[in-house]
Amino acid sequence: TNKTWSLSLKNGECRWGGTLLTLPGRIVENGSEQGSYDADKGIFTIRLPKETPGQHFEGLNMLTALLAPRKSRTAKPLVEEIDASEIPEEVVDDEEFDWEIEQTPYEEVSESALNPQCHYGFGNLRSGVFQRLQDELNDVIDIKNPDFTPAAERRQKRLAAELAKFDPDHYLADFFEDKAIEQILKYNPWWTDKYSKMKAFLEKSQEEENHAALVSFSEEEKYQLRKFVNKSYLLDKKACRQVYYSLIDILLAYCYETRVTEGEKNVESAWNIRKLSPTLCWFETWTNVHEIMVSFGRRVLCYPLYRHFKLVMKACSDTIKILQLGKSAVLKCLLDIHKIFQENDPAYILNDLYISDYCVWIQKVKSKKLAALAEALKEVSLTKAQLGLELEELEAAALLVQEEETALKAAHSVSGQQTLCSSSEASDSEDSDSTVSSGNEDSDSDSEQDELKDSPSETVNSLQGPFLEESSALLIVDGGVCRNTAIQESDANQGKPLASSQPLGVSGPLIEELEEQLKTTVQVSEPKSTTAVNHSNMQERDGRQTPND
Predict the structure, then answer these.
(1) Which residues of 245-255 are buried (b: 16+ CB within 10 A; e: fewer)?
(2) 251 vs 274: CA distance, rounded Å
(3) 299 lies in the same domain as 184
(4) If both were cysteines, with which of 57, 62, 189, 374 could 363 make a disulfide (CB 3.0 to 4.6 Å apart)?
(5) DSSP 356
(6) CA-closest candidate to residue 201, choices 189, 188, 215
(7) Domain final residue, candidates 366, 392, 418
(8) Rounded-to-integer distance, Cα 295 and Cα 314, Å
(9) Which CATH number does the domain housing residue 33 bear?
(10) 430 to each of 196, 225, 433, 438, 443, how far by Cα in Å?
(11) 154: buried, middle or exposed (CB in 10 Å: 19+, 13-18, 0-12)?
(12) Which of these three, 344, 376, 392, is where a domain ends?
């Protein structure tokens, strides 16, 4: 603030103190200039009149492109004659020239022999870098000895490495279990909202010049722009085409990274971007847009965590939106990539080879060129078969196996239900059989019990019948009085009470003999309970007859 600042205007140039700005349009100095200074913020605000009021100045937010003149102005001649006295002695060669040259047949020499150092980097303008930094760059790029590996050999090695890295199990896992993939596809990055606003603005005004104002830069991004050195790039038509193609490749990788992380950068962000971009990882060169999409699709299905074909197409759609938004949106993405690489130890070298130059170059590109590039990318159709990984065959085989497993599970479930039903029916029949058998057993047991109830008396009667007849006969021989006594005992065995009167005139030995015969007969032929009853009755009778003896 202690310095004296002066403003001088001349055509499209504005000199503010020691800083020279090159504006995209012409301005005039007519006394209507205004300037102010905010001491608290340390910001100068300058208002300058345009030569053509209402003219749109494109690229005023491209600070790097404004910091230096378009071209250097010098009066010094480009070719000078040097005095012989200024030539060093070691350069002077007085040796006589041999005019006789050995004649040898012409042999076609390979490109690597003619140019032992292959080119890479922005516009293929760099070479010899990896001879000094080979140890550091082994973790950054996949190609070995890039200084001596031509473009055709790089592509062959890249395709072989991708084919070896492809994991069918990982791909099929993401193909069938795609809940996380669907969540990623629903995410809307910052350019989605900007693109919607641009489409709405274009439908109303039909003007393409002013939609660049939709994309603004943060203070950190403006600081990045001021740190870049503005320079011009001498690119032929072929090199210029390579720069545009490689820009698509880098943006595809960046769009994938931003979507899968949902805008939250992590320690794997630098790895994802450089691994998914063959330009950064293999120093690949391109001939058309379609092969860029094929290469990007192969690498998405081989390297990152989420490997799904929908992510490939979504990244392509995001890249188209960024290109249609214009160079401000492209520059914002490149600044973010530059920051990610700058914070990663080995990846910062890729900023020197590619990203820093892209950040400077894109500020001078016409947005119409980027719109045409977006249209070329939009017209590309990519299929799974074009990736060369046999994805459709894998999916068909996996679906067939899944259908077979489903049918097998269904068959098992049906057989299990049938088995369960048959077992339940068998158990029901067994229960009914057991019920019937138990009923029969109960009826049998009841009948047996009834028979048993009737059998003792029958058995006793059958046993007592002949015995009583015999005893009756015996008693008649000795005297007719004891016959009545035998009849009374028979009545007692049938549950009738005995007579109180005692038989008279019966001798003791005869009674004992009858008692012994009765005991023997009852023990052999009657149940235990009946024997016990008869024995007790005999004891009672014996007890009543004992006093007479």
Answers:
(1) bbbbbbbbbbb
(2) 11
(3) yes
(4) 62
(5) H
(6) 215
(7) 392
(8) 15
(9) 2.60.40.790
(10) 76, 91, 5, 12, 19
(11) buried
(12) 392
Residue 47 lies in a domain: yes
> What are the structure tokens assigned to 449, written together?
């019990």
Please enumerate in sequence order all residues whose Cβ is within 8 A of that of 499, keeping only pairs 6 or more positions apart, or say none: 488
Q: Who contacts 218 (Cβ-Cβ below 8 Å, separation ≥6)?
A: none
Check whether residue 254 and residue 351 sit in a common domain: yes
What percentage of residues in the chain have a pLDDT greater than 70?
Answer: 59
Quick check: is 436 in a domain? no
Question: What are the distances in angstroms from CA 71 to CA 18, 62, 231, 236, 357?
Answer: 18, 17, 9, 18, 17
Structure tokens at 209: 């010049």
User: 34 CB contacts (<8 Å, ≥6 apart)?
Assistant: 46, 47
**Radius of gyration (C-alpha) of the chain in whole angstroms:** 58
For tokens 């990152």, what's the residue? 304
Of 179, 399, 165, 164, which is closest to residue 308 (Cα–Cα)?
179
pLDDT at 89: 41
Sign of CA dihedral 415, 418, 422, 427: positive
The residues, any chain, with a CB within 8 Å of residue 440's CB and separated by 6 or more, are: none
Question: Using an 8 Å Cβ cutoff, are 57 and 31 in contact?
Answer: no
Q: 273 and 337 in contact (C-beta within 8 Å)?
A: yes
> Which residue type does 403 have?
E
Q: How many CB atoms lie within 10 A of CB 481?
A: 13
User: What's CA 376's distance to the chain center, in Å?
Assistant: 32
Residues spanned by the domain of 33: 8-57
Report the number of distinct structural domains present in the chain.
Answer: 2
For the segment 458-516, what is each residue's pLDDT rounded down to a tens digit?
Answer: 443 444 444 444 444 444 444 444 444 443 444 444 444 433 344 444 445 556 666 66
Question: Which DSSP string corresponds to 400-459?
Answer: HHHHHHHHHHHHHHHHHHHHHHHHHHHHHHHHHHHHHHHHHHHHHHHHHHHHHHHHHHHH
CA distance 253 to 238: 23
**Distance from C-alpha of 444 to C-alpha of 336, rounded to nearest angstrom:** 99
Do residues 37 and 142 both lie within one domain? no
Please state the pTM of the whole predicted model. Answer: 0.63
Report the 10 Å Cβ neighbour count for 454.
10
Residue 347 lies in a domain: yes
Is residue 114 a part of any domain in this protein?
A: no
Q: DSSP string of 205-268? A: H--SSGGGGGS---HHHHHHHHHSPP------HHHHHHHHHHHHHHHHHHHHHHHHTTT---TT
Query: Residue 407's pLDDT is what?
Result: 83
